[in-house]
Amino acid sequence: MPKASLSEKFSLIHDQWRPKVVAQLNGQELKLVKIAGVFPWHHHDDEDELFLVWRGQMRIEFRDHTVELQPGEFCVVPRGVEHRTMAGTEAEVLVFEPAATRNTGNIVDEKFTAPNGVVI
Amino acid sequence: MPKASLSEKFSLIHDQWRPKVVAQLNGQELKLVKIAGVFPWHHHDDEDELFLVWRGQMRIEFRDHTVELQPGEFCVVPRGVEHRTMAGTEAEVLVFEPAATRNTGNIVDEKFTAPNGVVI
Q1: Nearest residue on chain B to A46, judged by CA atoms?
Q2: d(CA A120, CA A12)
Q3: What is the DSSP string of A104-120?
Q4: DSSP H or E segment with residue B7
Q5: Does the complex come out with an ipTM higher than 0.90?
Q6: Which residues contact A63 (CB under 8 A, 6 or more apart)?
Q7: 8 A C-beta contact, residue B75 and residue A2
Q8: Can you tell me the distance from the alpha carbon of B63 to that of B102, in angstroms, rounded to the nearest whole number?
Q9: Which of B7, B24, B74 has the CB atom closest to A3's CB atom?
C-alpha cells in the first residue's frame, strides 16, 4: 500500500486536458489533470464527476449558470448535465469518476478527447 | 450544482472519528473526518478506501508496515486488508469510499462505530 503525493504526481504531468490516473478503487478512479483554456461542451450519460481544485482556479459552465472553484473547493456534475470546464491560467484539478470515463463524454474531439487509463 | 469548500465543511465538524458526507456520486461518497488518537483494527470485506490528508498528519498501520501521510498525500487501503488509522494531534482527512461503508468495517465498536450517511 504505497502512499503518493498530489504535488509530486502533478509535477509529472506536462500536458493539459489529459487526465492521469493516480488511484483506482471500487471501479472508480482518482485522476489528476492540468487545465488551461476552454474545454468543449459535453455531458456524460452514465457518470457523475467530482471536480476538486488543488492549485489555481477553474470554472464549470452549465447552460444556465457558472460555478467558480478556488483551491479546496469542489463540485459534483451529475450525469446527463451538459457542462464545460475552463481556466484562465493553468489549474491543477482532482477528478473522481468511474474508471474509463471518457473526458469528453458524449462527444469525440480531435484535440480534447484524451486516452483513458494513463496511470502515473 | 452548488460548490462547496473543504475548509468550510471541516469547520462544521466538531467531533472526531465521525465521517460526514459532503458529496455523493456513482454510489460512492466523499466524506470528511477529523481524527485524533488511535482507531481500532478492522478491515472492509467489500470496499476499498482512499484516504487523503487535508490538514495535519495521520498514520495508517497495517500488520506489516506503516504509512505516514502529510497534507496532500494519499493512500488506498484495498478491501480485505486489516488496518488502523491514527493521528497524534487532530488531522483533517478526506475519505472516498462506497456509500454506506461502515467506518469500523468488520467490527462494531461502542466508541468508534459511527452513524452512516450524515450529510453536511
Answers
A1: B26
A2: 8
A3: TTT---TTT---S--B-
A4: helix B6-11
A5: yes
A6: A82
A7: yes
A8: 21
A9: B74
User: How far is residue A79's CA from residue B32's CA, in Å, rounded to a whole number?
Assistant: 23
Amino acid occupying residue A17: W
Q: How many CA atoms lie within 13 A of A75 on its CB side?
A: 22
Quickly state the pLDDT bin for A89 (edges 50, 70, 90): very high
Q: What is the pTM of this model?
A: 0.96
Rounded to whole angstroms, how far apart are CA atoms B37 and B23? Answer: 26
* Cα–Cα distances in angstroms (integers) from residue A50 to residues A32, A76, A93, B21, B59, in the given order: 12, 4, 10, 14, 26
Q: Name which of A3, A62, A74 is nearest B23 (Cβ-Cβ).
A: A74
